[in-house]
Design goal:
By secondary structure, this protein is of the alpha/beta class. The chain has two domains: 76 residues, no CATH class; 98 residues, TATA-Binding Protein (2-Layer Sandwich), CATH 3.30.310. The protein has six helices and nine strands. It has a nine-stranded mixed β-sheet with strand order 1-2-3-4-5-9-8-7-6. Helix 3 links the parallel strand 3 and strand 4. The two termini are 32 Å apart. This is DUF38 domain-containing protein.
């Protein structure tokens, strides 16, 4: 069992030593961080990854559905994902975080070059129990009465063609004045 594995590599440039590793049984990695190749996640045992912190990953187009259905992530409680894009506007991860009762401060940060809004996210989610809503933010209840989630849309930067969405699991007790502490530090 590996407790904490941090990987740095350039996506699309295979890590030869990881790809050539042969094992008689799946890997058991408690905490997987960095620029993680999806092929490594696939080699992990069912429900073995407890903490996933991805800063970059290859396979943009099919990445979200692959991560959401990956058996090794069935029990992951801590999520910190910084993805280039999220084709479903974060809906799959919002549902996954609720299903798994992800830990407070678990987050998803992704870019979008479309004109998607918080209203689009709410519409795609369907039946949400909304606690707070503005044009750029929605806070909603989860299945756990002690936790809420916040999704915020950030406008395009001066030198960027995309805007960012950040979603964070928060305590149901936090006040509006604390949103910045949870959301802005996830950019």
């Amino acid at each position: 069992m590996i407790d904490d594995l941090f990987i740095y590599h350039v996506p699309g440039d295979p890590i030869k030593c990881l790809e050539s590793l042969e094992s008689t049984s799946p890997y058991h990695i408690n905490k997987l961080r960095g620029s993680v190749p999806f092929s490594l996640i696939q080699k992990c045992a069912r429900a073995s990854v407890r903490n996933l912190e991805i800063t970059r990953m290859e396979g943009r187009k099919y990445l979200v559905p692959r991560l959401l259905t990956q058996p090794s992530l069935e029990s992951t409680k801590v999520w910190h994902l910084h993805l280039e894009w999220c084709t479903d506007l974060g809906v799959g991860f919002a549902r996954k975080y609720m299903e798994l009762d992800a830990n407070i401060r678990s987050s998803l940060n992704f870019g979008s070059m479309s004109r998607d809004t918080i209203g689009d996210f709410i519409e795609r989610m369907g039946d949400l129990r909304i606690v707070d809503r503005t044009e750029v933010l929605v806070r909603f209840e989860t299945n756990n009465p002690e936790k809420h989630m916040i999704m915020k849309r950030f406008e395009r930067g001066e030198y960027s063609r995309e805007h960012r969405f950040v979603m964070v699991v928060v305590s149901a007790e936090i006040q509006k004045s604390q949103y910045d502490e949870y959301v802005f530090n996830r950019l």
